[in-house]
Predict the structure.
Amino acid sequence: MSSDLAAIIGRLIQQIGVFNAAVARKLSIAVEQLEAAKSVEEYQQIGILVRDTLIEFGQSIYKENMVSQGATVPSNSDAKRMIKYALDYYGADQEYLGYFVKTCYDYANAIQHDSSAKRESVFRVLSMTTLCIALVIEAVIQSDAYTRRPYYKCPNCGSLELEVGEHWEADYDGAFKMEKLVCVECGWFYIEELGGVSGVE
């Protein structure tokens, strides 16, 4: 890996880490393993790690409410469909991104089963996947659905991993549902419909 390209990948991983620290850590581990790898088995193992990183990333941005009625609900390992639904939900699905995700996942999966896997192929799939994840994150956080939120990052810990959940408020008719913005990292929450109530759970 050339020093210039390694530096670019390192910067992309840092940017990804702001949005998802766990995914960034896995990418960093893959980079370290590639620098030391010498055997086909080691290259295959990195392919598995890259594939699993895409799955974990998909799980982190996908929510059940992103599936339209009648659509197939993705399994916990269906990274391609989870990321596609998230992009659709945020209105950020430029066609090339969906193809890019599929290409990266299928490439990593192929390396896992390639009995003659080579360093060059592993380097390409790791570079492609790092760029792909960074582009998906950029598309999501620049989307109208994301930027219309009252907060795009947690004011308590700085994390970008904010989820929209449910809060039920009792009234004389029973209870009614409202949106509740929750930080995955620290438990901070915000309920705009209650006058901007916030706190940490």
Summary: The first helix runs from residue 3 to 19.
